[in-house]
Amino acid sequence: MNKPLYQLVMLDLQTKIREQFESNAKLPSERTLMDQYEVSRNTIRLALDDLEQRGLIYRLHGKGTFVSPRLVNQTDLGSMYSFTQEMRDAGRNPITFNLALELIRPEQPVREQLNLTDGAEAYCLTRLRMADNEPLIFEETYLPIEHFPDLTMQMISGTPLYVVMKESFHETVVMAFEDIEAGAVTTREAQALEIAEHDPCLTIYRRSINDHNVPIEFTKSVARGDHFVYRTKQSNRRVLTGENK
């Protein structure tokens, strides 16, 4: 079955938005698009309406139509989040920079998350997550030395952390608990993320558990507020299961 003309226009614009336009870039005018696609104004407006409903564009009265910021959409909060996979699924090129690996004595809030005693040591791994050369997430990960002795920067260079955990230390993350808060970036976080101090952010605290029900990782991730959205999906189970009949 042939697609309606406006859908063909919408799909072509969608590809161009993802591959050619930067966030907040202005799209050509309706008249320009009409000439480009050789279609009516109504067809262009239907295509733009569809793109707007998909969250790919936004309109400003009297100014035009613009490309929406690329948001990382985590829809399934019950699944194990993978930055690299999310970026690849979105058609972006992810890269992680390991900035520092230090052996420290964590402060009390971190010790409580990892069930560590006073004076216990842990590695603090600082990372910057980027996509298409744009910094998106600043992370601090704490790893107890008793579970990851002799961890080195070389081990985690070019290899996913969870792979290193499993292959080098026989530690497997089977469950994680996350708390998500809205906040503002600190001076250090702003410098790393190349945004202004006190800009909005999402802060995700992640506590990971191994197969012996022991916490082995605690991560604080600071994500740029202009690029991330956590969205949940809800349904009326009574309707879906026919309980209302």
Automatic annotation (TrEMBL):
InterPro entries: Bact_HTH_transcr_reg (IPR050679), Chorismate_lyase_/UTRA_dom_sf (IPR028978), Tscrpt_reg_HTH_GntR (IPR000524), UTRA (IPR011663), WH-like_DNA-bd_sf (IPR036388), WH_DNA-bd_sf (IPR036390)
Signal peptide positions on this chain: none
GO BP terms: negative regulation of DNA-templated transcription
Entry's Gene Ontology molecular function annotations: DNA binding; DNA-binding transcription factor activity
Pfam families tied to this protein: GntR (PF00392), UTRA (PF07702)
Residue ranges occupied by any HTH gntR-type domain in the UniProt entry: 3-70
PROSITE patterns recorded: HTH_GNTR (PS50949)
SMART domains named in the record: HTH_GNTR (SM00345), UTRA (SM00866)
Alphabetical UniProt keywords: DNA-binding, Transcription, Transcription regulation
Entries under SUPFAM superfamilies matching the protein: Chorismate lyase-like (SSF64288), Winged helix' DNA-binding domain (SSF46785)
Protein name: GntR family transcriptional regulator
Organism classification: Bacteria, Bacillati, Bacillota, Bacilli, Lactobacillales
